[in-house]
């Protein structure tokens, strides 16, 4: 008779996935969801009680069970128990700065083509939400260097990332280096080269020269910016630099749906806007991408425009019918 556990063994620790299989263990985080959808994340500790507004619940009643069950508190409150997914963890973890939401982290991983073994640099690390997705994508054989200029945010990120990947005390994901400092100054000083540079900060254009010098030919810069003025300034700075392909900008909108019999309609709640994403690829040294001959939209670079401006943006003068 097979002695293998019905759900298989645990995920190999050397995969650094941040995921466990099998019975819940002491020291693990679980997520309890009540009938109204309220969520509580708790760290399982033998002998401890979780207090709810509907009585208590012993952690010992959870430890040793397979996740995906319902537990009842002493006053009859019902809670669904699962291990948190990465997408759930990042929106409930303690925050310093605003986080990259899972819908955007997924876009960044896909469209900036983050691959296992990649050398990636990001700034700023903020609360470490995007860091978790990037580490998942590069894996233990990749390299992720995260710059953060505010020490208090770096501390929050370190705790969050360490909690998610479950590293032993004093250790962290083997691909990760967290560096305190400004990417625009520290990255050139490091002399390191990267495949991908991800910028999530107020002024990513200030980091573009450092990014261009650090990127290998064919590498990708990806910026995540919240406002249209940031988007414009970053795009024009990329064009003006000349060592990148024409930048692409987009945003993603995700809408949930209510589906019940014939009542099928969009959900009432939607995150209308998070941020815009921009990507561009690094040309080889000395190479410039063919100019995109484009006629600027009327007024695009008119007297009110004060930002950077690539010369080719005006090489076809505006004409009227
Ligand atoms: C919006 S937060 C980043 C959130 C993070 N990506 C996450 O998902 O949790 C922006 C962070 O960038 C940092 N920052 C801004 N400019 C920077 C720079 N040039 N170098 C390093 N960090 C920078 C800020 O201190 C702030 O913590």
Q: Low-confidence parts lasting 5 or more residues at pLDDT below 50?
A: none
Strand order of the largest sheet: 9-8-7-10-11-15-12
SS-derived structural category: alpha/beta
CATH structural fold name of the largest domain: Rossmann fold
Over all CA atoms, what is the radius of gyration?
24 Å
The CATH homologous superfamily of the largest domain is named: Vaccinia Virus protein VP39
Structure summary, number of beta strands = 15
Set out the fold topology.
Elements (H helix, E strand, L loop, with lengths): L28 E6 L4 E5 L5 E4 L2 E4 L10 E4 L5 E5 L3 H7 L9 H10 L7 E5 L5 H10 L4 E6 L2 H15 L10 E5 L2 H8 L3 E7 L7 H7 E11 L2 H14 L6 E3 L4 E6 L2 E8 L5 E6 L40
Parallel strand pairs: 7-8, 7-10, 8-9, 10-11
Antiparallel strand pairs: 1-2, 1-6, 3-4, 5-6, 11-15, 12-15, 13-14
Helix pairs in contact: 2-3, 5-6
């Amino acid at each position: 008779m097979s002695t293998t556990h019905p759900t298989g063994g645990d995920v190999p620790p050397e995969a650094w996935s941040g995921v466990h299989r099998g019975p819940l263990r002491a020291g693990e985080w679980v997520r309890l969801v009540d009938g109204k959808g309220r969520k509580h994340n708790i760290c399982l500790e033998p002998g401890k009680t979780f207090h709810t507004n509907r009585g208590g619940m012993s952690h010992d009643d959870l430890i040793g069970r397979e996740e995906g069950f319902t537990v009842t508190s002493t006053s009859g409150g019902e809670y669904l128990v699962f291990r948190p997914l990465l997408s759930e963890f990042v929106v409930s973890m303690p925050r310093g700065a605003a986080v990259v939401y899972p819908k955007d982290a997924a876009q960044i991983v896909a469209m900036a083509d983050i691959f296992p073994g990649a050398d990636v640099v990001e700034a700023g690390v903020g609360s470490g939400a995007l860091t978790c997705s990037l580490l998942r994508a590069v894996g233990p054989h990749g390299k992720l260097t995260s710059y953060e200029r505010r020490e208090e945010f770096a501390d929050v990120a370190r705790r969050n990332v360490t909690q998610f990947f479950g590293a032993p005390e004093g250790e962290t994901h083997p691909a990760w280096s967290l560096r305190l400092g400004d990417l625009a100054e520290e990255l050139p000083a490091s002399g390191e080269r990267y495949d991908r540079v991800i910028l999530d900060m107020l002024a990513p254009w200030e980091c573009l020269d450092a990014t261009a010098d650090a990127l290998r030919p064919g590498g990708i810069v990806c910026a995540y910016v919240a406002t249209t003025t940031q988007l414009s300034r970053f795009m024009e700075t990329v064009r003006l630099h000349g060592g990148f392909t024409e930048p692409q900008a987009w945003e993603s909108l995700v809408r949930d749906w209510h589906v019940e019999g014939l009542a099928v309609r969009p959900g009432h709640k939607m995150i209308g806007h998070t941020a815009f994403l921009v990507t561009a690829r690094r040309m080889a040294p000395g190479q410039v991408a063919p100019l995109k001959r484009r006629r600027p939209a009327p007024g695009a670079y008119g007297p009110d425009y004060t930002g950077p401006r690539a010369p080719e943006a005006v090489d076809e003068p505006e004409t009227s019918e």
